[in-house]
Amino acid sequence: MTVFHDATSHPNMSIAEALGALISGDKLPLRISAYDGSQVGPLDASLGLDLRTPRGMTYLVTAPGDLGMARAYVAGDLEMRGVHPGDPYPLLKTLSEHVDRKRPPAKVLLDVVRSIGIERLKPVPPPPQEALPRWRRLAEGLRHSKTRDAEAIQHHYDVSNDFYRHVLGPSMAYTCACYPDADASLESAQDNKFRLVFEKLRLDEGDRLLDVGCGWGSMVRYAARRGVRALGVTLSQRQAAWAQQAIAGEGLQGLAEVRHCDYRDVAESDFDAVSSIGLTEHIGVTNYPSYFAFLRDKLRPGGLLLNHSITRPGNDTSTAAGGFIDRYVFPDGELTGSGRIITEAQNVGLEVVHEEDLRRHYAMTLRDWCANLVRNWDAAVNEAGLATAKVWGLYMAGSRLGFETNVVQLHQVLAVRLGERGDDGGLPLRPWWTP
């Protein structure tokens, strides 16, 4: 039997009813329990939320929305029932389908405060995994200065190379894969993504490639195995050290190099191609003109640029990330539409010759990363700690949902640096790569 309690109809709410009112207001198909022993929701629900402490309620009421829920969840004050912490996708999907994102009516909020006690409105320190708010990061430099970008990258990427190996698998590729078919494995899809980038850039033995934001050097090593001289740069010292070791392990030292440096400090130029796979999200939309101008200047005339990045569906929405993503995952991250990316590339003189959306591929990639995290949960927790592992499960499952529902997209934009009088280096008349 299914029983619902309408939290909006009770002036004297239990804590469970108050939590239900904050989340949705009515008929949430979850079983909610609270630290006062109260429970609401359908008795036969397979999914649920357990609010274990008063501190958890404080997190929820002082930071409404995803940030408050993330704080309570990461701190262990709010538990998700019926899902694995490495992949809470089913519960997040249910919430997304039933939660009313409008602010609860004033009367409901007043009833909530009366039920939980006014003392719960006094903020408490967030979990230690949380980054400082944007306005307090000024001590690290202005947004997207070299110093502050380095701090932001280290917050996300310097968790642990072994932790990422448990999540990403052997490819150590932390960007959207490209699935040749629906049944393809993650590893084959990542290899296919690098093949696609390689072919779009028309790379050939003896060519020179610059890969900015190269991560653990997967693209660099893919190109070097095929005789391309590849230089990768990353702001993560741990990534660079791991990549250099992997390069040595494959005997690619004569062709491949990964440096620990800002892409803006690369002095070499006249590259045949530049790949930027997952960097644009970190550089700031206002920096797009200088970013694309810098990459243009690294290319020889006729050289190609492949920009692969997460985007928004439109070009006129806020570029700032939400509270949870900004404070726990990608500090200072910004997203805009593919139209803005294309515009800025064109404005510095690059000719855009192709673009495509791999949105559904990223949802599948995140699905497979979560499956890896679940499979390797104990090892991941031992490596990075329970709270950090929960952050990654929450962020990847939530991001999967975002890509599935077109909240975010993933675009590859291919452009060429023209020579004098519009010479494009002899590009074929139509796309020359296989899908």
Shape: elongated
Rg to the nearest angstrom? 24 Å
Structural class label: alpha/beta
The helix-strand sequence is: HEEEHHEHHHHHEHEHEEHHEHHEHHHE
Largest sheet: 7 strands, mixed
Unreliable spans are 1-10
Average predicted confidence as pLDDT = 90
CATH class category label of the largest domain: Alpha Beta
Major sheet: order of its strands?
7-6-5-8-9-11-10
Distance between the termini: 50 Å
Count of discrete alpha- or pi-helical segments spanning 4 or more residues: 17
Query: What count of structural domains?
Result: 2
Kindly state the number of beta strands.
11
Tell me about this structure.
The chain folds into two domains: 7-121, no CATH class; 147-422, 3-Layer(aba) Sandwich (Rossmann fold), CATH 3.40.50.150. Helix 12 packs across helix 14 (338-347). A hairpin with a 4-residue loop joins strand 1 (31-34) and strand 2 (39-40). The chain is of the alpha/beta class. It is built from 17 helices and eleven strands. Strands 7-6-5-8-9-11-10 form a seven-stranded mixed beta sheet, sandwiched between helices. Strands 2-1-3-4 form a four-stranded mixed beta sheet.
